[in-house]
Amino acid sequence: xxxxxxxxxxxxxxxxxxxxxxxxxxxxxxxxxxxxxxxxxxxxxxxxxxxxxxxxxxxxxxxxxxxxxxxxxxxxxxxxxxxxxxxxxxxxxxxxxxxxxxxxxxxxxxxxxxxxxxxxxxxxxxxxxxxxxxxxxxxxxxxxxxxxxxxxxxxxxxxxxxxxxxxxxxxxxxxxxxxxxxxxxxxxxxxxxxxxxxxxxxxxxxxxxxxxxxxxxxxxxxxxxxxxxxxxxxxxxxxxxxxxxxxxxxxxxxxxxxxxxxxxxxxxxxxxxxxxxxxxxxxxxxxxxxxxxxxxxxxxxxxxxxxxxxxxxxxxxxxxxxxxxxxxxxxxxxxxxxxxxxxxxxxxxxxxxxxxxxxxxxxxxxxxxxxxxxxxxxxxxxxxxxxxxxxxxxxxxxxxxxxxxxxxxxxxxxxxxxxxxxxxxxxxxxxxxxxxxxxxxxxxxxxxxxxxxxxxxxxxxxxxxxxxxxxxxxxxxxxxxxxxxxxxxxxxxxxxxxxxxxxxxxxxxx
Length: 510
What we know:
By secondary structure, this protein is mainly alpha-helical. The protein is about 55% helix and about 5% strand. The chain folds into two domains: about 10-195, Fumarase/aspartase (N-terminal domain) (Fumarase C, Chain B, domain 1); about 200-505, Up-down Bundle (Fumarase C, Chain A, domain 2), CATH 1.20.200.10. The longest helix has about 30 residues, at about 420-450. This is Histidine ammonia-lyase. Belongs to the PAL/histidase family. It is found in: Cytoplasm.
């Protein structure tokens, strides 16, 4: 149920990814009705009111007569549905529709309840408007993406039904028993003026990163084991000397993951001549922890944005007025989207460095070159690291901030924009890249642990090796077609199966 209280991140994920149905509460319907009364009173007044009886943006100086206002709303949506390029993912479109509906339900936009109910109807019926990659500058909200969604409410444009079939919106609505709406005063603007696209992608990325950072700790633990490194540097008394919460959580995970490791125990005695390990092993909690703290900051920003009512102008029903504002500017969201891309790139970078150490016989402490069963005849995981390196290189490019750019639009009326949508789009690619880099580290570390037999890994890391082997990824042997094994490992990482395998043995990771 969508009410005047903000939706939670969990609800966003459920609707966007899992196809959960949506309905409006009676409280939200009443709030929208109160705001609508204010809009209709202003629409009937002789004094122009922006967004109700005027043009938009640089055309706001024109007063639109009553008989042309329905056309005004249609024209706004049609002209702003100007996206181009590939289709945006279904989960992103559902997320932005839900978040737009959440703002409408606050009663500060002036939307009619029946229009808002139609959005809920589309979501519940699994109807997804076609939204394109390019078109949003992240200021005045995600105008083009939201306009494509508003177009579908009018029975226009293209959508995909619950089966994924592409069809005209009018056909999909009719098949679902839904009637298109004729937009009234201000409704077109209320439907398109929000940060919902970039916010939805932020919430989804946060859910993914929560799981991937736990996976990064699992991968690091496997690398520490496989490279005969020490676990002493992860001791809580050492971490307490630098009290960053993310670092402490990551180090605690590593301690738990390595507990009862026969591999670690094998070189823990006084005869061990290893003074200290390479940074990529020793400093894993510092890097993973900094990323965790970055995620925590981004989650705080997301929580504030989820509690916001983004529109311009905004309706203040208690005071009976409508006021222009700048809350649609995407800067708060854009900044953290860029920040997360930086963190993701660095976690991927340190993962690639840990992987590379397995493959170099001068640094791997007794492992065969490239973990090949017959070096020279076989290449082992040599090219898997190339794949990691290519992804990490791309992620470093994607870490260049989008939010520092701005191109003026609307005849200089909108002269500073956030580029938050672009920041969100590149973050999605970064999150996918991180999952692939970590998957290759897990795959490589598991192979190295097999080479360490008869020494036994810890129960936690051993569970990951067992998961890989039971999923069709064989242990060391002659070279095989490696790409399918990488993709299997990627699916195990992205689905959370790697983390679940560990947590089934040692309990929840921090």
